[in-house]
Amino acid sequence: MTTIECGSEAMKQAFPFSNNWKNLNHGTFGTFSNALRPIHRHSEHVAALVEDLVFVPNATTAFNTTIRNLVFQPGDSTPAEAVAVDVALPSSDLALCEKFERQICVLNSSGKNVKLAVFDTISSFPGALLPFEQLTKICKSHNVLSLVDGAHSIGHHPINLDRLDPDFFFSNAYKWLHVPRPFCFLYVAKRVQRLIRSTVPTSFFFEPQSHRDETWDIDQTDPAKGEENFALRFEFVGCSNNSPYLSIMKYAIAMAKEGGEIVASTLGTEIMQNESCTMTNYTFANVRLLLDFQTVAEEEASAAMQVEDWMSKVLVDDYDTFICLGLYNKAWWARLSGQIYLNAEDFERAANVLQVLCERVRRREWQTEE
């Protein structure tokens, strides 16, 4: 077996990019190598039983499969649908968890009935690792079902669903596990499998409502047998990868940290981080851009959107790259992705591109170009 050094030109040639393209936005769509090899069964990567895992096209399908099967009653509340838990990042894990639990208690004490909580393992923008293990435990302590959005999880950080024990969990394999799109797994704990009657779209093994017990009275400690036909409602597909994903994770995390520091140093700004430094233990680096919201956009949301659209277009058209850029807490941030086909020179180039891009924004080119 030939060994290819991470970040080398040979590694870049192993992926289907054009010669000049620098892919600094792996986190949005992922990619896969030119030559894929079979890997072990998907369940081994997430420490779950095969009969509790099914495959769906993407995280959106997994989310809808879960939500559209659940029957809500008047007075039921979910943080995803009815009540948002507002958290400003960076935040300590403790503060975030306390706010989350306090919101559940306030809702229940006011006569509401919190039935389901939806939260990320890693948020999309800004890209931040959240204390999802603690949030899952809080849900259990209040008899609230947990729907964990792990879209960025598999191949990004270790997952042990047996230990985490959520009610529902899903993750896109095409982002960080390097398999062809579309590919996502949905985990449903045995104790709640009876709530899932249909796939999206509905298929042959749909079970009519009259045949089901749809009550939400779930005993979190009950070692339920699960649904005999649960997995049969979903179509299984093969799972492939180009190398052991633990090696990919180690390099990609280190590259994101180093790359983020390179970009922040060049721009004279900082990486988004919390006091316990847990926000950089994964393959994203959020770097603040040297742009003032008031000066550039006069704190107008429409102007800010125009700036973001212009920057995104210019990155592709003028610089052969794409970086996820966005306004968060009245500051513009760049979400950079570390990956095995990138090296320090790529982030040095990204830093220079972002520096020039910010200068062009301050010159208000976004207003002068059609």
At a glance:
The protein has helices at 9-13, 26-29, 43-46, 59-67, 93-109, 132-141, 161-164, 173-176, 245-267, 293-297, 301-319, 344-362, 365-368, and strands at residues 22-23, 37-38, 53-56, 76-77, 113-114, 116-120, 145-149, 168-172, 184-188, 240-241, 284-292, 321-322, 324-328, 331-337.
Top keywords for this entry?
15% strand; Aspartate Aminotransferase, domain 2; three-stranded antiparallel β-sheet; 370 residues; alpha/beta
What does this structure look like?
By secondary structure, the chain is of the alpha/beta class. The protein has 2 domains: 46-241, Type I PLP-dependent aspartate aminotransferase-like (Major domain) (Aspartate Aminotransferase, domain 2), CATH 3.40.640.10; 245-364, Aspartate Aminotransferase, domain 1. 34% of the residues lie in helices and 15% in strands. The protein has helices at residues 9-13, 26-29, 43-46, 59-67, 93-109, 132-141, 161-164, 173-176, 245-267, 293-297, 301-319, 344-362, 365-368, and strands spanning 22-23, 37-38, 53-56, 76-77, 113-114, 116-120, 145-149, 168-172, 184-188, 240-241, 284-292, 321-322, 324-328, 331-337. The strands form 5 sheets. The chain has a 5-stranded mixed beta sheet, with helices on both faces. It has a 3-stranded antiparallel beta sheet with strand order 11-14-13. Helix 9 (245-267) runs parallel beside helix 12. It is globular, with a radius of gyration of 22 Å.
